[in-house]
Amino acid sequence: MVEAVTQGMPILRLADVQTHIGPYHILHGVDLEVPRGGVTMLLGRNGAGKTTTLRTIMGLWQASAGKLEFDGVDITKRHTPAIAQLGIAYVPENMGVFADLTVAENMRLAARGGPVDEQRLDWVFRMFPALKIFWHQRAGVLSGGQKQMLSVARAIIEPRKLLIVDEPTKGLAPAIIQNMIAVFRELKQTDVSILLVEQNFHMAKSVGDTVAVMDNGKIVHAGRMAALAEDEALQQRLLGLSLAAHQ
Question: Can you give the residue ranges of the ABC transporter domain (predicted)?
Answer without folding.
Answer: 12-241
